[in-house]
Amino acid sequence: MSLQERYMLKVEGLTVSFDGFKAVDDLSFYVEPNECRVIIGPNGAGKTTVLDLICGRTRATDGSVKFKDHELLKMREDQIVHAGVGRKFQTPSVYEDLTVFENLEISYPSGYSVFGALAFVRSPNVQHRIAEIAETIFLEDLLDEKAAFLSHGQKQWLEIGMLLIQDPELLMLDEPVAGMSVAERKKTAELLNRIIQDRSVIVIEHDMGFVADIATRVNVLHQGKMLSEGSMAHVQADPKVIEVYLGH
Amino acid sequence: MFSDYSMSELGAIFAMQGFAGLILFSVFVLMALGLAIIFGQMGVINMAHGEFMILGAYVTYFTSIFFADYMPALFGTYFFVAMILAFIASGTLGLLVEWSIIRHLYKRPLDTLLATWGLSLILQQLYRTAFGAREVGVTIPSWMMGSMPVTDMIEVPINGIFVMVLAVGISMAVYIMMFRSNWGKQVRAINQNRVMAGAVGINTEWTDRLTFGIGCGVAGVAGSAFTMIGSTGPTAGQLYIVDTFLVVVFGGAGSILGTIASAFSISQAQSIMEFFLSGSMAKVLTLLVVVGILMVRPQGLFSLKLRK
Amino acid sequence: MLNVQSLSAAYGASEVLHGVDINVPAGEIVAIMGRNGMGKTTLMKTLMGIIPEKSGAVDVDGTPITGLKSHQRVAKGVAYVPQGRMIFSAMTVQENVETGLTVTGQSKVPDDIYELFPVLLDMKGRRGGNLSGGQQQQLAIARALASNPKVLLLDEPTEGIQPSIIREMARTLRKIRDQKGLTIVVSEQVLSFALDVADRVMVIENGSFVHDSPRDGIDEAKVSKFLSV
Amino acid sequence: QDYPTAEVNVTGLAVTDTTVTVGILHSVTGTMAISETGSVQAEKLAIAQINEMGGVLGRQIEVIQEDGASDWPTFAEKARKLLVSDKVPAVMGCWTSASRKAVLPVFEQNNGFLYYPTFYEGLEQSPNVIYTGQEATQQIIAGLDWVKETKGANSFYLLGSDYIWPRTSNKIARTHIEQFLGGEVVGEDYYPLGHTQFNSVINKIRLRRPDVIYAIVVGGSNVAFYKQLKAAGINMTEEDPILLTISVTEDEILGIGGENMEGAYACMKYFQSLDNPNNIAFVEAFKEMWGEDIVIGDVTQAAYLGPWLWKAAVEKAGSFDVDKVREAQVGIELDTAPEGYVKVHENHHLWSKTRVGLAKADGQYEVVFETAELVEPNPFPEGYQ
Amino acid sequence: MTLSKNPLFTRHEAAAFAVLAFVIFLLLPAALDNFRLNLFGKYLTYAFVAVGLALCWGAGGILSLGQGVFFGLGGYCMAMFLKLEASTPENTSIQSTPGIPDFMDWNQLTELPLWWTPFYSLTFALIAVVIVPVIFAFIIGVAMFRRRVGGVYFAIITQAFAAILTILIIGQQGFTGGVNGITDLRTLKGWDIRTDEAKEVLYYVNGALLFVVLFIAHFVRKSKLGRILIAMRDQEDRVRFSGYDVASFKIFIFCLGAAFAGIGGAMFTLQVGFMSPTLVGIVPSIEMVIFCAVGGRLSIIGAVYGALLVNWAKTSFSESFPELWLFGLGGLFIAVVMLFPNGLAGVWTEKVLPQLTGLWKSRKSQPQKEEALQ
Ligand SMILES: Nc1ncnc2c1ncn2[C@@H]1O[C@H](COP(=O)(O)OP(=O)(O)OP(=O)(O)O)[C@@H](O)[C@H]1O
Ligand SMILES: Nc1ncnc2c1ncn2[C@@H]1O[C@H](COP(=O)(O)OP(=O)(O)OP(=O)(O)O)[C@@H](O)[C@H]1O
Ligand SMILES: [Mg+2]
Ligand SMILES: [Mg+2]
């Protein structure tokens, strides 16, 4: 297996500074296909910023982010999405004025151009796919409901569904279970384990139980740098991690 | 365009125009400060800003009449009284407007644009009905007219200096109020999150009302000062609205310093260009440059960089 | 200290709180637990005067605050850390904390607040909106404490906070309670934190309390069952 | 009855046995209300006086007043209403050229009859309009000749608001100065309507040192211009340079302030201070109707002529029919006009005298010059275009 | 499941279109005399702009305070053609240069400027009516939306454009007719547009065109693009991270609004008989936004009623109370904003419709928009 194929995502020397403050500092890590990578780290470590950099929301000061053979740092947000990278935000962002169905439909990966969107028709294929996704995210009975009426957890799922429908090869989730109830957390872990099958996922989370449920590998970020990397057990035992993050 | 003039003339031209630009700058600052509070700090798009200014101008007019009739000896000083009264009158009207209209619209900032546009129509008609459709002439105390020669080419109008001093004074007061006092902190907190501001103990209703009133009061003072250089009639306020908004937006809506910097650059650009081009073309060019710069810096000259 | 009697609240026509009663003596920490959408936030907002009471009465330290505006309640000694932080993003960290001083009349932030959250001191001049999620959460608590309250309402304060700080927070809240005799009501979904911090645990379900028990001797299994239906 | 309705009104106009309805169409709202108020007052005064004298062909004049709202499409709309719905035989109205241009096709198409009071740029002559103000050459040339002859002025700085009247007028002025007076134009500048900052142009004027500032600034800009001129130390009473304007009537001085205008010269056909019996009676009646404080400018007087000219034409024609009135109108003389004696030229403009006034601190003009003869209107001046 | 159903017209929508057609094509012509009908024809030309604004602002969240620019450009393109047709050498024989528009002659132009000459062709003019505003909108749109200028900033900048264009038109009077505008337009390919019959025909043409525009707008609203617009208005970032180039959608909808406005402007020129810079400036631009707001910014049909109602109110207030009508108009704006934030359409769907259909199922309470926006 060539190096090219071995890694889905290569982050090298990634740096960003805000008015002199280095939020991410010469960071490198690699993500393999079909892997669920969890990034943990203290509040303010730069986790969200890393995702922002990868998906083009924030412009990097330096470094490189290679996704397959695309250099993401040079691309616009929508181009990054087309390349196969999906991103979920920390607070659920769904279109409250639209129904669950329409939310998913908007994310359906065709009709990206202006005229494509005008010509887009709700074909049986599209409907089928939407129904399928809705089932995956436990919302099959709520397709005609306005998103505004969903509970917090359901919104989180919907947003994940909006990403899934695009079938991205790399999925990035920022604190997907924050604010969820215990039961919902379980269901979400199940969901993630299911969708990891055919793609790579990067997750940021503070809920260690949840992390243990899903992670194949864990990165610990601290002050913009990699503090520790390895399996969940390895990381949890690392005294540095306990010191800055887990607590005694 | 420079070739028509000799070197020494050009020097004098730039000096004179620079000074004319300073006066224009002060005018812009005065116009914009009230709006910088109301729009920049409170987020209310007040299209009736010009009408609040004109109220100040009318107050000045009536004060001058009163002084001329009842205390002619003190006529030279009426202007100071007039400015205070203008502040009170426009400010009170502002309180009233906030209470009756604006406070219901804080959640819908763009709608304030429409409502205040309606308000401006009403105020114009009110002035017309009350004070007549014609312009009124405000007599300026004689010590404020005339000019001081600097060189034989350059003369400095006294009312220009007066406007400048006023602009500096009011800017400082507004700056201190908005950025160096607890009051300003509260106003900004409300602007960012009205509900939460209440939940940390800020009396949002009262703060809003007073802030709006002060913004309108400042507009009134500006209107009062403008009787020295402009006309006072029911519709005169409309002349100012575009320039005023542009100055505030160009500066970066949340920043008083930005407003001042923007007033300075726009006025200097316009003033210098006016000399070499026709007035109309100078205006067009200035506007285009401002729009061009705004494309590069969409949030204005002085803007905060905040993550989304 | 905090006395709530048959409090009801509604969004438009739909009633979300159905006549709840809470009685928290001075210095007690109560955790209100419940799944998503059960009415925790609604309760907090109603106590804070952000949502009007439909019926019922609320007293703080014997003085009724029913019907008062938010800022009046703050003056009467209620402070609030909302779910989702809601810090003032364009203002600096220090200014954010200072807004909490409005009702106290002080102009300087007491040092002990920064002692509780040293990060905030480091980032004093940074804009609130540029902080990370967890930092914002700490800022929100600091801001609430600045008003020197008698009753502190915290709505899911652990959301998005790193484990060590969560643990720290439980300790801190108890410390503040001990130092200042504060009464604390905290809503929570995570049982472990609730058990760490609270003297008493109440469970809310569909806008009414279904369980109320002191921490000591609590039937953990039963509460867990409520939380994970 | 002398004039049976069936005979005097064969075209279905708003004429009854006892009344005839005319239209007044001016802006009473918007930016132009400042200027047009005086015209409305004058027209109403004239109509009241005519009614008192027994009306027109034994009929009392009634008025339908419409607001043009300073908006040209509205003018067109209201003109159409007056002609089509209200069937008025004549309309007194409009002030700006733009509003007149907007209503002109409406009047021509519906065969209405408009009395237009403002001094204007000329270049127009419609069978459906009587122009009771002066066209540009009438107003301008006499003034320029006067300033050249009596003051020896040679260099001129032309200045105006940026629209057609100032531009056309300045073109005529420039041609006259350069080709007929052998003078020199040292600068020409235009500012957008509503402009309020004139320090730049004042600096330019200082630099070029013209003998005469020839200013055609209008509206609110006027106030700013004269105040800033004075503040900049250009003292008009010392005539260094001389300020000559054709756009500031007594109405405008009210806003500018007499003390700021003192020493300037204005060139037009009428000043309130004209000393003749017609005018004295007119001023008195005007003040009686509209208040002691009121002032009367050139346009106001021209507006006052409208109803009288129409009355005379209707009576000469013995009919309200527009075609007959038009025919009768040419050649009508009015020796009761406040400005003296006027006569309708076949090009539908008025023969009138042109005068130069010197502005006084009290806001009035003192007449310092008057053409000996009536000046012929020449809306399409050969050689000036 | 109802999912597959996304008919182009629901029953309600079809009914709304039918009622509007009834009002425009049957009711108004039957109820009004020629003069009033012509007035309504003029109001309808504003409705084109309002419909465009309902798309840009209501759906897309892009508030333009410069729609007058596009209305004016469309109107001027039409006016230039008509003016050239009216300026035959015979008609203009008294000019120093016969055969050119009168205002050029007054401004000493001796020759038609080159850029005027294509406007001899009606086809060119008709294309220009749409294309010129679109090109302008495209330039502004690219410059603004690519730089992510939005919200109030965009509104104020478009307002500046309105100011710029007005000053330019007024300043270049030799080429544009200046303040007076382009007036005295007479015939369209020999057909006299000033007669009563012509005005009536134009009214129907106007109505028909408006329906074409409404159908286009409706189609856009109903398409995926329409939903993307709404999504963009509420969660621009999410749309971007769903793989859409947000700017290009904004540019498209802004251009479409401009095209509608251009058509409206051209019809205005025909209906009223002239075009002038007062239609370009800030005041008319704001008024157009108000038409849209009164109609209900989310509803394209509402926008039409809004344009008709406000203008009708303006006309009738000012006829009845020439000295006081601004109080009425200003009061109307304030009242609509404060009492009916969703305008006429809101009153219809929230108050009238439920009453009418009697189908008032007690729905879940509407979620109140979270007040505490960060
Ligand atoms: N635009 C910005 N300007 C200044 N500082 C910033 C900016 N964006 C982020 N920061 C800083 O960078 C650091 C990293 O922030 P980030 O949001 O990535 O943290 P995080 O690891 O996601 O934390 P959390 O777990 O609390 O969400 C923080 O200290 C934050 O204050
Ligand atoms: N703004 C609103 N408008 C209408 N209904 C609302 C609104 N906010 C909340 N609700 C409803 O009120 C109920 C209680 O919501 P609340 O936010 O109080 O729950 P919560 O216990 O705080 O949940 P979470 O753990 O998700 O924060 C829910 O059913 C919710 O759908
Ligand atoms: Mg984060
Ligand atoms: Mg909650």
Automatic annotation (TrEMBL), chain A:
<keyword id="KW-0067">ATP-binding</keyword>
<dbReference type="InterPro" id="IPR051120">
    <property type="entry name" value="ABC_AA/LPS_Transport"/>
</dbReference>
<dbReference type="GO" id="GO:0005886">
    <property type="term" value="C:plasma membrane"/>
</dbReference>
<dbReference type="InterPro" id="IPR003439">
    <property type="entry name" value="ABC_transporter-like_ATP-bd"/>
</dbReference>
<dbReference type="GO" id="GO:0016887">
    <property type="term" value="F:ATP hydrolysis activity"/>
</dbReference>
<dbReference type="Pfam" id="PF12399">
    <property type="entry name" value="BCA_ABC_TP_C"/>
</dbReference>
<keyword id="KW-0813">Transport</keyword>
<dbReference type="InterPro" id="IPR032823">
    <property type="entry name" value="BCA_ABC_TP_C"/>
</dbReference>
<dbReference type="InterPro" id="IPR003593">
    <property type="entry name" value="AAA+_ATPase"/>
</dbReference>
<dbReference type="Pfam" id="PF00005">
    <property type="entry name" value="ABC_tran"/>
</dbReference>
<protein>
    <submittedName>
        <fullName>Urea transport system ATP-binding protein</fullName>
    </submittedName>
</protein>
<dbReference type="GO" id="GO:0005524">
    <property type="term" value="F:ATP binding"/>
</dbReference>
From TrEMBL, chain B:
<feature type="transmembrane region" description="Helical">
    <location>
        <begin position="12"/>
        <end position="40"/>
    </location>
</feature>
<dbReference type="InterPro" id="IPR001851">
    <property type="entry name" value="ABC_transp_permease"/>
</dbReference>
<dbReference type="Pfam" id="PF02653">
    <property type="entry name" value="BPD_transp_2"/>
</dbReference>
<feature type="transmembrane region" description="Helical">
    <location>
        <begin position="158"/>
        <end position="178"/>
    </location>
</feature>
<keyword id="KW-0029">Amino-acid transport</keyword>
<feature type="transmembrane region" description="Helical">
    <location>
        <begin position="241"/>
        <end position="263"/>
    </location>
</feature>
<comment type="similarity">
    <text>Belongs to the binding-protein-dependent transport system permease family. LivHM subfamily.</text>
</comment>
<keyword id="KW-1003">Cell membrane</keyword>
<dbReference type="GO" id="GO:0006865">
    <property type="term" value="P:amino acid transport"/>
</dbReference>
<dbReference type="InterPro" id="IPR052157">
    <property type="entry name" value="BCAA_transport_permease"/>
</dbReference>
<dbReference type="GO" id="GO:0022857">
    <property type="term" value="F:transmembrane transporter activity"/>
</dbReference>
<keyword id="KW-0812">Transmembrane</keyword>
TrEMBL record, chain C:
<keyword id="KW-0029">Amino-acid transport</keyword>
<dbReference type="InterPro" id="IPR017780">
    <property type="entry name" value="ABC_transptr_urea_ATP-bd_UrtE"/>
</dbReference>
<dbReference type="GO" id="GO:0015807">
    <property type="term" value="P:L-amino acid transport"/>
</dbReference>
<dbReference type="InterPro" id="IPR027417">
    <property type="entry name" value="P-loop_NTPase"/>
</dbReference>
<keyword id="KW-0813">Transport</keyword>
<dbReference type="GO" id="GO:0005524">
    <property type="term" value="F:ATP binding"/>
</dbReference>
<dbReference type="InterPro" id="IPR003593">
    <property type="entry name" value="AAA+_ATPase"/>
</dbReference>
<dbReference type="InterPro" id="IPR052156">
    <property type="entry name" value="BCAA_Transport_ATP-bd_LivF"/>
</dbReference>
<dbReference type="InterPro" id="IPR003439">
    <property type="entry name" value="ABC_transporter-like_ATP-bd"/>
</dbReference>
<dbReference type="Pfam" id="PF00005">
    <property type="entry name" value="ABC_tran"/>
</dbReference>
<dbReference type="GO" id="GO:0016887">
    <property type="term" value="F:ATP hydrolysis activity"/>
</dbReference>
<feature type="domain" description="ABC transporter">
    <location>
        <begin position="2"/>
        <end position="229"/>
    </location>
</feature>
TrEMBL record, chain E:
<feature type="transmembrane region" description="Helical">
    <location>
        <begin position="44"/>
        <end position="66"/>
    </location>
</feature>
<dbReference type="GO" id="GO:0015658">
    <property type="term" value="F:branched-chain amino acid transmembrane transporter activity"/>
</dbReference>
<feature type="transmembrane region" description="Helical">
    <location>
        <begin position="14"/>
        <end position="32"/>
    </location>
</feature>
<dbReference type="InterPro" id="IPR017778">
    <property type="entry name" value="ABC_transptr_urea_perm_UrtC"/>
</dbReference>
<protein>
    <submittedName>
        <fullName>Amino acid/amide ABC transporter membrane protein 2 (HAAT family)</fullName>
    </submittedName>
</protein>
<feature type="transmembrane region" description="Helical">
    <location>
        <begin position="152"/>
        <end position="171"/>
    </location>
</feature>
<feature type="transmembrane region" description="Helical">
    <location>
        <begin position="288"/>
        <end position="312"/>
    </location>
</feature>
<keyword id="KW-0812">Transmembrane</keyword>
<keyword id="KW-1003">Cell membrane</keyword>
<feature type="transmembrane region" description="Helical">
    <location>
        <begin position="119"/>
        <end position="145"/>
    </location>
</feature>
<dbReference type="InterPro" id="IPR043428">
    <property type="entry name" value="LivM-like"/>
</dbReference>
<feature type="transmembrane region" description="Helical">
    <location>
        <begin position="324"/>
        <end position="348"/>
    </location>
</feature>
